[in-house]
Each structure stands twice: as structure tokens, then as C-alpha cells.
Amino acid sequence: MFDIYGLVEVESCENLTFYFVSIDLNDSCIKLSDRTNGKKPLNISIPLSDIENFHTKTIYDTDQISFTYQDNHYKFVEYGNQTISIFGKILEERLTVLTH
Q1: Cβ distance 61 to 77 under 8 Å?
Q2: Domain with 47 in it: what CATH number?
Q3: Residues 6+ apart with CB under 8 A from 10
Q4: How many domains does the chain have?
Q5: pTM for this one?
């Protein structure tokens, strides 16, 4: 598989923070890894079975993917390299398999 990377917005009850991450998706989890060499790290594995409120949508021709995990809202926005669009399609397929 090719490299998937992008900007993820993580919103909690208290904060809204943006991270530049590598995205690794396998059959059971999403792994978000820091791409800033420690300047603003986010390194987390998110089990697909724990994802809630998964949505994909297009706003002004820009694809967005969002979901909730452990009371944090994660949003990925396409910035022109098509990787977030592809990530959304693959993630949607994996989540569909889990629910059937």
C-alpha cells in the first residue's frame, strides 16, 4: 500500500488541535503517527471496533472523514493529494465488514 498522510483535527471537550500524521490502516485498527519529528506529536492506535459516528461528506468539493473515539472527535480533510479520499473509501469498506 502507498503512504497515506494528512492533517487531522482532534476535538475534545476542552481543546481543538491539528496534527500532521501518517495514517496506517489495517484490518483491525488505524494508527496515526507523528510526521513533525516530535514538534507536535500524535501517536495513537484506534481499534476499528471502537469507532463511533463515522461520516464521510463533501463540502465545496473537499472530502472530509470524521469519527468519534473515546470522546474525541477526529476529522480528516482532503488537501489536494487524494490520500484522504482513498483513506475514507478503504476505512468505510473495513467498517462495513466489521458490522456484517
Answers
A1: no
A2: 2.30.29.30
A3: 16, 17, 18, 19, 42, 72, 73, 74
A4: 1
A5: 0.86
Residues 84 and 6: beta-carbon distance below 8 Å? yes
| Distance in angstroms (rounded) separating the CA atoms of residues 14 and 29 | 26
DSSP track, 21-78: EEEEE-SSEEEEEE-STTSS---EEEEGGG-EEEEEEEETTEEEEEEEETTEEEEEE-
**What is the distance, to the nearest Å, from the Cα of residue 30 to the centroid of all Cα atoms in its chain?**
8
Q: Smallest Cα–Cα separation from 42: which of 56, 14, 26, 22?
A: 22
Environment class of 1 (CB within 10 Å of its CB; exposed 0-12, middle 13-18, buried 19+):
exposed
3-state secondary structure of 7: strand
pLDDT tops 90 at residue 94? no
| 46-82 residue pLDDT tens | 999 999 999 988 888 888 899 999 999 999 987 767 7
Q: Which residue has the higher pLDDT, 34 or 83?
A: 34
